[in-house]
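Following up on my earlier thread - several people asked me to post the actual chain instead of describing it. Fair enough. Here it is, all 60 residues.
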Amino acid sequence: MKIVVDTSVIIAVIANEPERKRIIKLTEGANLLSLPPLFTLDKKLLEAAKLLGLKAIEVN
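Reply from S.P.:
Thanks for posting it. Predicted structure:
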């Protein structure tokens, strides 16, 4: 399954927000899609997500 996510989803997981467990449960096994990052921050957040084991791919 493919799920489109934005920066807020990645921040919620990285920052251990209350929604973290639910996001991980709902996206487990899915390919997370993101629009091409426009800012360096988005690229860094995607890298951090990958380090946490989230499978993220960029759509060009």
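Strands lie at 2-4, 31-34, 56-58. That should answer part of your original question.
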